[in-house]
Amino acid sequence: MCGAIALALPGRPGAASSSGRYVAGRLLYNLGRVTTYATLGALAGLVGQSLRLAGLQQGLSVASGCLILLLVAVPERHTARLAGLLGLARPLGWVKTTLATLFQKTSGGALYGAGLLNGLLPCGLVYLALAGALSAPGIAGAAAYMACFGLGTLPLMLGLSLTGQLVPLHWRRRLRLAVPYAATGLAVLFIVRGLGLGIPYLSPRLGPAPTAAAPHAQPPRSVHYCH
Question: Which intervals hold domain Urease accessory protein UreH-like transmembrane (predicted)?
Answer without folding.
Answer: 1-183
